[in-house]
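In full, the data:

***
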Amino acid sequence: MTFSENLKFFMKNKKITALNIAKILNVTRGTVTHWSNGVRSPNPEQIEQLALILGITEQDLFPNAQQQKQKIINEELKDPSQETKKQIQKHCNSNNFLGDNNFVGNSEVTQNNNYKETLTAKEQLLLEFFREARPELQKEMFNYITSK
């Protein structure tokens, strides 16, 4: 289900109208209707407030978020960009990955988040996934990505 479908479901389930939400969030009823029809999306602060109003978590509004994130990561893995390869190589070098087996996602290169300025959203997702992976998986990913 999409965000808009989930929003409609929880509004109906909690018997809360678009007008009620609009008054609480200080937006127009049309804005809430646009959210529930998928025309527009609320900002992160509004999403947080919507979850509170509906008595749910923000994740309840986005149940497929992890699946979509994994799909994007898998797509980037199939054909990693040069920038992704470069950042993973920097990460590996700064962790002395190639010299020993002590490869953990804590390098200065990726921890300071400066790399995000040059990466696309897909590249950022893959690099974050890479950083959080177990050392064995990082090695496999490194070998796979650098062989492409």
